[in-house]
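A reminder before we start the practical. When you read a complex entry, don't treat the lines as separate problems. The point of joint prediction is that each chain is placed relative to the others, so the output describes one connected object in space. Small molecules and nucleic acid strands, if listed, are placed in the same frame. In the example below there are two entries. Take a minute to note the order of the lines before looking further.
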Amino acid sequence: MAIVYNWQLGRTMSYWYPESRPQRQYAAVFDLNKCIACQSCTLACKTTWTSGKGQEYMLWNNVETKPYGSYPLAWETKLLEMLGPQTWQDGKYLGRTIFEAAPAGERVLGWRPDDYDYAFPNTGEDDCAGHVERGLALDLPHAVWFFYLPRICNHCTYPACLAACPRGSIYKRPEDGIVLLDQGRCRGYRECVKACPYKKVFFNPLTGTSEKCIFCFPKREQGLQPQCFVNCIGKIRLAGYISVPESANPDNPIDYLVHVRKVALPLLPQLGLEPNVYYIPPVHVPVRFLEQLFGPHVQNAIQTYLNAKDDPDLAGLIQLFGCTEKIVPRWKRQNDWILGIEEDGTEIVRVPLREPVFERPLFDERFQVARHNCP
Amino acid sequence: MLKLRLPLTLLVGAAVIVGGCRRHAVAPPPQEIQALLVKELPTDPTDSVWRQTRELRIPLLLQDLVEPRLLQPSTSYVAVRALYDGRRFAFRLEWEDATENADPGIATFSDACAVQLPQKVEAVLPAPQMGEKGHPVEITLWKAVWKKGPLLEKGIQAVYPNAAVDHYPFQAASLVPGATAQQEMALRYSPARRLGNDVASVPEKGAQDIMAEGPGTITPLQKNSQAQAVRTAQGWAVVIVRDPPAGFSPDSGTHVAFAIWDGAHQETGSRKMRSAWVPLHIVQN
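Here is the predicted structure of the whole assembly.
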């Protein structure tokens, strides 16, 4: 075991390999306030990557309803129960990660799903927490709530799958930090399936190898965002590159959301993997539930997001999500316009801070015709 | 001087008497595999020629040297018989295993066994745990799941017989089944097969050959080993026919090691029961 620094925990931790950060880390921000669980992302991924034999059950991208949905079944609650209650103090994690809690003989604390656990990919869909009581009024957070959690591989800085593979079949690309599983080298031991806390490595029973999300690396190499991003009709996703906090660049949209405004948070940071998909938490959900999923900074993130109506930079950048297929490495606001920019300053896309509103009179005097939405 | 010599003489005499008594006791079984020299090697575990060989019960150890380790013991021993035809070895491995684990699946694991020999005759034996850098071993592997045949060709119904799949892109009506273009497209959806990963295919002769220079270093070999298995009342009997180490001389013998995986115990990869090196010598009837 080596000692590495995990900025999401605010401390060093044990990991199987020494710290070796990529030249740049491909990352993403998902705005959970905008996801409607249409599953366009799921289908975009499925049709692109996992429509082969033995991949029928695989969902490299899935969207589940929280609190009751999970794919595979109980992927997070089972592990959290194994790990037991842990504590944060002043933004620093005092508990044990899954590397530090690894039992004797194991590299990582984990569990391997049964095939039954994959049999209900959309269980709990739209199931609410709470009861509708008499006198209930709409307030924040909602007393009765659910939200949608879209999930892909987190292409972690400290991947548990990579740590667990006894053959070194999983590697993290130095050029972009994408975590890949070598299909020529894997021997199907499924240690990665057991170790990944997000359960985003899947075993193909017909080829005998494990397979996982590749963050659409062939598209990234062409400067394009992944399939599940560009097919998102809710425009909830933005792909880019994240820096370590001390090198955060406000002109970088991911850095701005994660490090500068701290409005986007990692999923289950306490497990210690430093995941690189960040979530803007849903503002209507009780903070105590969200803190278990996204760590101790949820309240601040929600408050920052709620203030976005008076915060043109933040509101503007959120408008940039889903507006171009290209990866947007830089951004800036020019008055009421938000610009997505290449590294060399070339403009990629320009979106208005607020969509223009046109009022159409019921009767068009010019053409002497009534304008109805419904004929 | 006389005082000193007398006790020594007594001690030596006593040792001879005790030693003599032991020689008349039941001789312990040989802790070596005696490979019987025969003209022809059988591949069938039930072949009568195996009755002419001496069986050696080899105790198995937990693989608890490298992570991920096996900490709960399962198979306690493997009973081994061996034959040699002047060119190749045939090993017959038999072990107790109450459950047959030969079904493919997302969460199932196959029963399996392996025979390991040094890749070449060396003055120093490679490490018994899959060799070491510069001192490779060659391993012949058998898996129960292979008896199900080529899974990719059978499709998901090999795992879930009642599964219904609407469509695979490489089976579109516009493609001619079996045509080169169609097959190439199908391969793109099975990257492990496309890359020639040996685990994505069933070996023609029932065994896979691999070499290793330490844990985690398995590399496929193009050799010609064979395996055949039968399910017994108590477990498995498997015959593995394979080459001896390079430079092997029947006069000097070699060493061999074994590994057993119990699928019901979710044993796979380094989670296995293994033996130490066991000496092997050629004997004649």
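Discuss with your neighbour: The radius of gyration of chain B is 24 Å. What might explain this?
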